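Customer escalation, tier 2.

The customer says the design service returned an amino acid string that "doesn't look like it belongs to this structure." They asked us to rerun it and document both sides in this ticket. The original structure tokens are below, unchanged.
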């Protein structure tokens, strides 16, 4: 459940947004002043901030910059009037999107969904490639190389491999994979995971009977291991070299 912080000094708007977003299954916290909002961003690390630009204690654009120095949280600014220069400055100062008052909760909810989707890409953009043995997985470019050679994966195969690599050495249950990769925390068939796992194995040149990276732990899940047994930090250099050779 995404957590939203609403920073808005107008009691009626704040209450209406809070009510509307709670009805849409968001965890909503509110702040009536800019400084209280900044404090909450740092302390509570919300998933999205809705920020009114017209606050009593601090200029909204200044506050926006202050939040940006402390956090990468997606920020949707709220403004009273359709004021283009302010919008441009807000977006330039690091706002992700904006809504103009008066607005409906449906619109805000849609914009929250959009920044959360983009936010995941943004987080990935900053993330370095993951390396386990000869396997390098880069979420930015969504590319995988094995011992320097490109591996062509379908979307869900990539997502599953990324999950396993990001938790290398740990057992990932099929239920967790269904929740993370297929967004099926409940329901869904573990067979889906099995099928993708078998495709992944084939593309990585291994099999369930002769595993290298992908090890099934019977009745529990899958564990991705480094078959070369080297420390991941040791293999980083050789993987880099392999990359530049492309
Ligand atoms: Ca205001």
């Amino acid at each position: 459940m995404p957590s939203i912080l609403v920073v808005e000094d107008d009691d009626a708007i704040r209450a209406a947004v809070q009510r509307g977003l709670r009805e849409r299954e968001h965890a909503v916290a509110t702040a009536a002043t800019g400084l209280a909002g900044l404090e909450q961003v740092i302390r509570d690390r919300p998933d999205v901030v809705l920020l009114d630009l017209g606050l009593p204690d601090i200029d909204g654009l200044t506050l926006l910059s202050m939040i940006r120095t402390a956090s990468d949280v997606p920020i949707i600014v709220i403004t009273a009037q359709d004021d283009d220069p302010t919008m441009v400055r807000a977006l330039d100062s690091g706002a992700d999107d904006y809504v103009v008052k008066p607005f409906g909760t449906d619109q805000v909810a849609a914009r929250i969904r959009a920044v959360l989707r983009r936010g995941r890409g943004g987080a990935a953009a900053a993330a370095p490639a993951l390396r386990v043995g000869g396997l390098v997985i880069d979420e930015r470019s969504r590319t995988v190389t094995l011992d320097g050679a490109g591996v062509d994966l379908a979307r869900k195969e990539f997502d599953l491999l990324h999950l396993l690599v990001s938790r290398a050495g740990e057992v990932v249950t099929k239920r967790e994979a269904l929740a993370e990769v297929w967004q099926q925390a409940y329901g869904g068939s573990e067979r889906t995971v099995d099928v993708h796992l078998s495709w992944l194995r084939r593309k990585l040149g291994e099999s369930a009977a002769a595993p290298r990276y992908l090890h099934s732990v019977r009745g529990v899940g899958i564990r991705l291991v480094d078959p070369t047994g080297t420390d991941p930090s040791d293999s980083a250099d050789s993987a880099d070299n392999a990359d530049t050779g492309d």
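Tier 2 assessment: The sequence is consistent with the input. The two ends are 41 Å apart (CA to CA). Residues 3-124 form a domain with the Rossmann fold fold (CATH 3.40.50.2300). Sent an explanation to the customer and offered a walkthrough call.
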